[in-house]
Structure formats: C-alpha cells, structure tokens
Amino acid sequence: MEETGETTPEEIRHKGAKSSGDNVEDQSSNATGDVSSQSSGHGNDSRRSDGAEPRRNRLLLFNKVMEKSLQKFISDASFHRFAHTFHPFYKKNPQVTENIHKQFIEDLQRTIQDDINKLIEEGVLQCKLDELNKLEEAAKNSQDPAWRPSGVPEQDLCSFVTPYYLKQEAYLRRELKKILQENAVLAQRVQAGREGIAQTEQRIATAVDEWKAPAQTAFAEFQALSSSLCPPATFDV
C-alpha cells in the first residue's frame, strides 16, 4: 500500500525496532546454525576422553563470541537508522525501503559469516587450537617458572630475538663451511689443470729440441757436401 502522508520519527522508530528485531532473530539463526549443531554434538559426545574437552570448549567459545559480535553488529544496523539515512526515499516508498533493508541485512550477515568461515579455514584455527592445547599440557608438566616481562624492553627483546639470531649464525656458518669446501675442491681442480698445462708445454719444448738437433746436423752435413762438390776456387775468374 502506498503511503501519502508524512511519517513521524516515532513511526519509523517503531517499525525499525520491529523490523530489525525480526531480521536479527530470523537471520542470526542461519548464521549460527553451526554453533547450535556443535553444542548438541558436544552433548552427544560427552563420553569422549577429557583431552578433547579444551579444544571443544575453545571452538565453542570462539563461535559464541563471533555469534554475539555478529548479532550486536546487525542490531546496530537497524531499520530506524536505515530509514533515517534514506528518509526521502522512505517517505515515498516505506514498504520498498523495508524490503531493501531486509535484503541488505541478509546479504551483510551472509557475507560476514562467509568471511568468518574463511578466516577459520585459511587460518587453520583447529590446528592452532591443538597447538595451544599442547603448549598448555607442556606448561603443566614443566617445572621452570613461566616467562614474565622484566620491565626493560631491551632485555625482553634480546631474550626473544637472541635465539633466532643464534640459529641464523649457525646456519650461516654451515653455509660458509660448505662454500669453503667447494672452493677448495675448485682450487685443486684449477691447480691440477695448471700442472697439466705446464707438463704439456714441457713435452712440446722437449719435442722441439729433439727435432732441432737432427735438423741442424742434417743442415751442417748438407753444407759440407755442397762445399766439397763445388769448391769456391772453381768459380774464380
């Protein structure tokens, strides 16, 4: 039905409270269905070992915190505020405005719930909670006092980063030792190559010397023979 008269703020507030309350109540049931199923599942699985209780409690607590936060956020986005923001449009089409707000709340809640599910999946929340359980169990069995800040930021920072730097130093030392060993092997190969080249040069020089001696002897014999066959006095005039 189209409304032609002016709408008072009290009517908007009344409709906004009613609409937002219904939207939050109806839509939060879809967004928190997993929480209810987990709660009933926890009741049926009460016969499991006590070691799994902290993990279930943490997951349940996380889900409940997300549920309360989502409900509070959705309740803040009430129809009254929506209509007040778009008051000119609300005066012309109150029913359409209410439908738009309802669709907006549904889409917003679904998007937020999807983001929360992605956060749980991508952040590997269950594994992180398992690690937290292991740390808690290890802390119970440890006799050493728990770490507490000393009040001096420099000391606390050093105590935190020093083990990391020591690990990095050990890693760099191992890499340096490996590189030095590789360089030593390469140096041995280069030295062996140089010795091989020197030996090759020595063999070439020896072969050249061995070739020069017979050549010089043959040349001397040829000169002697040519002198005996053709004495210089024969050609004198």
UniProtKB/TrEMBL annotation:
Localization per record: Chromosome, Centromere, Kinetochore; Nucleus
NAD keyword on record: no
Compositionally biased tracts (Basic and acidic residues): 44-55
Family matches, as InterPro entries: PMF1/Nnf1
Major location (coarse): nucleus
GO biological process: cell division; chromosome segregation
Region (Disordered), start-end ranges: 1-55
Protein name, per record: Polyamine-modulated factor 1
Annotated source species: Salvelinus namaycush (Lake trout)
